[in-house]
């Protein structure tokens, strides 16, 4: 029988609704009551890494989780790993594990939008399907996966799209890579992956700012004043900014790496427009163009590159479209 490692980190899947109607953490993880229903799937070893709401997750904790998984995989023979996680930052943890953890077995994240005692709770279904994916041969070599509502997504592409729907996780660029039916785990596309970079610690800081019409340049200047090591900028359309930002951007690029992503949820940034503030000018400045990552994932990618001491050319390559 397959042997799976189940790691709990907290989140709604580990919470219950109180008498006042508020969803709160439980001292005993209620999702563990599901495990007797999974005995025909695999032998399951459960580890409680943390019990925190996902807004409490940080890059430092993500690194600790990656190191924890790395250690556990040396202590026993596992055929896959499932991580339960809160949904607000689940995509960030999944992507961080993708770019740092070179695990030889499937790594699958899942969670719940409704707590254990709410009507229509989805935690049990999501956990069972995640366990099935983690033990499947189809999931091997596919990178870190997110399994939710019967769909399988790559960590690179998946994002939370709805504040409360159980169908919240979607892969906006390329669609989900697979699905889980009653009888089968089907993965019908191969997520592109790169060699991960495990880092020893996190000491750098990367800011994220969203560009809006008439944005004031002093917001960009504050990034340097506050001592950030990098900046991810959500720009307009295919890669454009108001021209008033150009002087501040020129000064920033001389000091720290600046990565741009589009504030559109579909598509990539390109150096198409040649007017003041257009992508052509930004490219000529030395700004790094991303490959369709959203800003929260681009922040993590830049953070890992900074911690690795990567050069500008290596950083540019790491954000190229083949991911």
Automatic annotation (TrEMBL):
Keyword presence, Hydrolase: yes
Keyword Hydrolase part of the UniProt annotation: yes
Stored Pfam families: Asparaginase, Asparaginase_C
PANTHER family, alphabetized: 60 KDA LYSOPHOSPHOLIPASE, L-ASPARAGINASE
Catalytic activity: L-asparagine + H2O = L-aspartate + NH4(+)
Domain L-asparaginase N-terminal: 4-191
Lineage: Bacteria, Bacillati, Bacillota, Bacilli, Bacillales
SUPFAM superfamilies: Glutaminase/Asparaginase
Active-site residue list: 12, 87
Protein's name according to its UniProt entry: asparaginase
Superkingdom per UniProt: Bacteria
Gene3D superfamilies from the UniProt entry: 3.40.50.40, L-asparaginase, N-terminal domain
Enzyme Commission identifier(s): 3.5.1.1
Species this protein is from: Exiguobacterium aestuarii
Keywords attached to this entry: Hydrolase
UniProt xrefs under PROSITE patterns: ASN_GLN_ASE_1 (PS00144), ASN_GLN_ASE_2 (PS00917), ASN_GLN_ASE_3 (PS51732)
Listed CDD domains: L-asparaginase_II
Family under the similarity heading: Belongs to the asparaginase 1 family.
Every Asparaginase/glutaminase C-terminal domain range: 205-317
């Amino acid at each position: 029988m397959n042997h799976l490692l189940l790691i709990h980190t907290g989140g709604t899947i580990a919470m219950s609704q109180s008498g006042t109607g508020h969803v709160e953490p439980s001292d005993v993880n209620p999702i563990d009551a599901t495990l007797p229903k999974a005995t025909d799937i695999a032998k399951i070893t459960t580890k409680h890494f943390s019990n925190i709401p996902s807004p409490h997750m940080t890059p430092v904790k993500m690194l600790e989780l990656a190191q924890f998984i790395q250690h556990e995989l040396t202590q026993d023979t596992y055929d896959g790993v499932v991580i339960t996680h809160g949904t607000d930052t689940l995509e960030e943890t999944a992507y961080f594990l993708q770019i740092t953890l070179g695990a030889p077995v499937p790594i699958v994240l899942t969670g719940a939008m409704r707590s254990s005692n709410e009507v229509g709770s989805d935690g049990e279904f999501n956990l069972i399907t995640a366990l099935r994916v983690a033990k499947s041969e189809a999931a091997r070599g596919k990178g870190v996966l997110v399994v939710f509502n019967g769909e399988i997504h790559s960590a690179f592409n998946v994002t939370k799209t709805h504040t409360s729907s159980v169908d919240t996780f979607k892969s906006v660029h390329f669609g989900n890579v697979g699905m889980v039916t009653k009888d089968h785990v089907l993965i019908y596309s191969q997520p592109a992956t790169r060699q991960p970079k495990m880092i020893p610690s996190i000491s750098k800081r990367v800011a994220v700012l969203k560009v809006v019409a008439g944005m004031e340049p002093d917001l960009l200047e504050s990034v340097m004043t506050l001592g950030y090591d990098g900046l991810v900028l959500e720009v307009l359309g295919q890669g454009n900014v108001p021209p008033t930002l150009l002087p501040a951007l020129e000064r920033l690029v001389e000091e720290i790496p600046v990565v741009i992503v589009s504030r559109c949820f579909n598509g990539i940034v390109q150096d198409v427009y040649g007017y003041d503030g257009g992508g052509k000018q930004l490219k000529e400045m030395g700004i790094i163009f991303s490959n369709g990552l959203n800003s929260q994932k681009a922040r993590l990618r830049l953070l890992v590159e900074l911690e690795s001491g990567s050069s500008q050319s290596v950083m540019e390559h790491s954000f190229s479209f083949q991911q």
